Amino acid sequence: MSRDQNGTWEMEANDNFEGYMKALDIDFATRKIAIHLHQTKIIDQNGDDFKTKTQSTFRNYDVDFTVGVEFDEHTKGLDGRHVKSLVTWDGDALVCVQKGEKANRGWKQWIEGGKLYLELTCGDQVCHQVFKKK
């Protein structure tokens, strides 16, 4: 595994995204559109500083962070909540804990075998996404 996550990544798998969105209380119509979208992630990493963009034909979401520094995050392109987020390294994986009104919310992201893996968690729901480098 590698800590270098720089690049443009195109989604090739998105398992249990609808379950994850239900746990976030995202409405039915939005969920039905979102599960069919193809996402692209653009990650600009400079050491522990990250600028990330998640793009689709429906909504885009940008978040910038520094590993180890808690920040206020407005999940505007997702569920519109305000959370306190803290991203740390667990080996070569980034782990984010998002504190707010939803319990057990966050994500884990890592590179393995030339692919980017992302696990999104909310409550008891886990979405598994896989991206290939463009």
Topology:
Elements: E1 7-15, H1 17-23, H2 28-34, E2 40-46, E3 49-55, E4 61-66, E5 71-74, E6 82-90, E7 93-99, E8 105-112, E9 115-122, E10 125-133
Antiparallel strand pairs: 1-2, 1-10, 2-3, 3-4, 5-6, 6-7, 7-8, 8-9, 9-10
Helix pairs in contact: 1-2
> Could you give the order of the helices and strands?
EHHEEEEEEEEE
Percent of residues in beta strands: over 45%
Terminus-to-terminus distance: 18 Å
Number of helical runs? 2
Over the alpha carbons, how many angstroms does the gyration radius reach?
14 Å
Helix/sheet category = mainly beta
Mean pLDDT: 95
Shape: globular
Q: Give a count of the beta strands, DSSP E runs of length 2 or more.
A: 10
Helix content: 10-25%
The largest sheet is: 10 strands, antiparallel
| Low-pLDDT ranges | none
Strand order of the largest sheet: 4-3-2-1-10-9-8-7-6-5
Tag the structure with descriptive keywords.
134 residues
Walk me through this protein's architecture.
The chain is mainly beta. The protein contains two helices and ten strands, in the order E-H-H-E-E-E-E-E-E-E-E-E. A ten-stranded antiparallel beta sheet has the order 4-3-2-1-10-9-8-7-6-5. The longest helix has 7 residues, at 17-23. The model has no long low-confidence stretch (mean pLDDT 95).
Short summary:
The protein is mainly β. It has two helices and ten strands; from the N terminus they run E-H-H-E-E-E-E-E-E-E-E-E. Helix 1 (17-23) runs antiparallel to helix 2 (28-34).
